[in-house]
Amino acid sequence: MKPYKLIPVLVFTILFIFACDNKNTPVTRVADYNNYLKVKENKALDFAHAEIDFWQKKFDAAPNQMSYLSIIASKYATLFEYTGEVNHLYKAEELLTEVNKSYKYSKVAAIHSLARNYITQHRFKEALVLANKALAIGEARKETQKLLFDVQMELGNYTEAEKNLNAVKDMNDFDYLIRLAKWNDHKGDLETAISFMEKAKDIAEKEDNTTLKVWSYSNLGDFYGHAGRIQESYDCYLKTLTIDPNYSYALKGIAWIVFSYERNTKEAKRIVEAIELTHNTPDFCLLKSQMAQFEGNKEEVLHERNAYFYMQENNDYGAMYNKYNTLIYADAKETAPKALAIAKIEVNHRPTPDSYDLLAWSYLKTGQSKKALEIAQKYVVGKTFEPKVQYHLAMIYKSNNRMNKVAPIKEELLSSIYELGPNMEEKVRQL
Hints:
The protein has 431 residues and is an all-alpha fold. Among the domains are: 170-245, Tetratricopeptide repeat domain (Serine Threonine Protein Phosphatase 5, Tetratricopeptide repeat, Alpha Horseshoe); 253-316. Helices cover 74% and strands 0% of the residues. The protein contains 25 helices and no strands. It has helices spanning 9-20, 30-33, 43-61, 66-83, 86-102, 108-120, 124-137, 141-155, 158-167, 174-186, 190-207, 210-226, 230-243, 248-261, 265-276, 282-295, 298-313, 322-330, 336-349, 353-365, 369-379, 387-399, 403-414, 417-420, 425-429. The longest helix is centred in the first third of the chain and has 19 residues, at 43-61.
């Protein structure tokens, strides 16, 4: 494996100097979250292990009771959620496949479970096949249509996704509201997306449903952050941890605030390294490499990039990290062709505007600026509003001497530095 090509020292120096003058007033307090970094017990994990042992014994005694295997599979999914160990996800898949084969794919609930497992693995086309199987059976039709919305969104089939969303319309239904929020976020209407997510949160609180509260608080934390409402984002992550002290996603959200908003890399790294003790996945290596880049620590950038690839070499993550791999390889001239190859696979696998952005970006980085522009204009422009994608568009326009297109994007990006991360600030200003 070739090491990641480092950004020139001059750029690191500029970023570091620039950062020193751009620290925001802190919104976080170590005392608020420090205890969550030291949690040694995980009741959800302990319960999942106990349930696996219990139901496995039940199944061994009655091997015709396939419902037991479904329960065991759900507990392996819990193990994956809390540890990030992908083998747990594959074990759940193995069990759910056995269940569905036993039922000859006639039980909608079992089909749904396997489809959602596939979604987590980024096997979206296979998930769609299963969802359509469930739809043909006809039972639990609304649940199937919710599943279809999720899959169609991942595949970029937005017309079909909207049809399924409209089919389950119910302003008092948590599941509908969170999907309506996602739909509006997709359209670039973050304010409306937040309003629907807040309505979903209200339902979760009214029902006092722990799972739904954790989900809504953590997602609101993301949405508020995207909207620049950093204090509210932080408060939501803390609320999440109050309910579930082991919820690493919320801690990661706090780490991002500390890094991107407060520019405190030392503390952000401390948080991430605490998370890694119980939930170790490649994306944390990437986050730490961003911090090292911001500090101008070239050796540490290289170390974390190599650690990221090492984890992938020793674990089969399938397509789950294709996006990250494309972006990393595109950054270096010698690996840009590899980025292009992965991007082509991703477009075939998941033909969304974001995937086409990866393809356009890879073409740009291999010196094919006209091809990049052609793809971007056809598949990306006006179809996604992600800041990173918009930056790529600006660079593609710039390389094709379309400077009139760059200025409005630059203005928008300057308001999205928190989401992009501090390493992007100087790059945006140089557009």
